[in-house]
Amino acid sequence: MSEEQIPVVVGSPEREIHVTPLVTLEKVKICPLEEDEVEHFKIRCKLYRFHMDDEEGATWKERGVGELKIMKHNTKEAYRIIMRRDKTLKICANHSMSASMVISPHNNSENALVWNTPSDFTDGEHKPETLCIRFRKPENTILFKTKFEECVESLRRAQSNSSDSIVNGISTLKVNGEKDENDDVKNADKDVNNVDNQIKILSLNEETNKSDHEK
C-alpha cells in the first residue's frame, strides 16, 4: 500500500485541524480594589451569612469557600476584610473593620467564629450583616481570632489618640480665645483714654484761644 492510499483518521497526527474562532475577545484588566492597601493577613476558610426569612426562618447560608484577607491601608490606620470565592473570584465579603467590633466562637465551636458588621458591601450596597467563618483546624480559628482582635485594638488606640488630639486642640483654642478677649478689653481702654486726652487737649486749646481773644 502506497503512502497515497493510507487512510487519514480525523484527529490523527497526520492531519492538522485548524478552527477559526467566531468571536475575538480582548483581554480585560480586572481591578482588585486593593490598590491603596497592603495584605496584612490571609487565610483559607468557608464563609456563611445569617439570613432571616419569613418562610425559612433564621438560617445560615453559605457565601463561599476561598481565601479571606485582612487589608491594611497604606497611609492611614484602617483595615478591611475582603474574601473572594475560589475559581470565580467573586467577592463574598467586603467591609471595613471598626474599633467596636467583637469576634467570638459560634456556639462554643472550636472551628467557627462569628462577628457583626454594620456595612458590608458585597452585593453592591452597604447593609448590616452577621458573618460566620469556619476552618478545618482549631489552630486556624485561634490564629484568625488573634489577628482580628489585634486589628481592632490598633483601631482603638488610633481612635483614642485622635480623641486626645481633639481635646488638646479645643483646650488651646479656649486659652487663645480668653487671651484675645482680654486683649480686646485692653485695646478698648486704650481707645477711651486716647479720646479723653484728645478732649482735654481741645478744651485747653479753646481756653487759650479765648484768653488771647479777651486780651
Automatic annotation (TrEMBL):
InterPro entries in the cross-refs: PH-like_dom_sf, Ran_bind_dom, RanBP1-like, RanBP1_RanBD
Annotated CDD domains: RanBD_RanBP1 (cd13179)
Pfam families (alphabetical): Ran_BP1
SMART domains: RanBD
Basic and acidic residues bias (residue ranges): 177-193
Location of region: Disordered: 177-215
Signal peptide: none
Annotated RanBD1 domain residues: 18-157
Record protein name field: Ran-specific GTPase-activating protein isoform X2
Source species: Hydra vulgaris (Hydra)
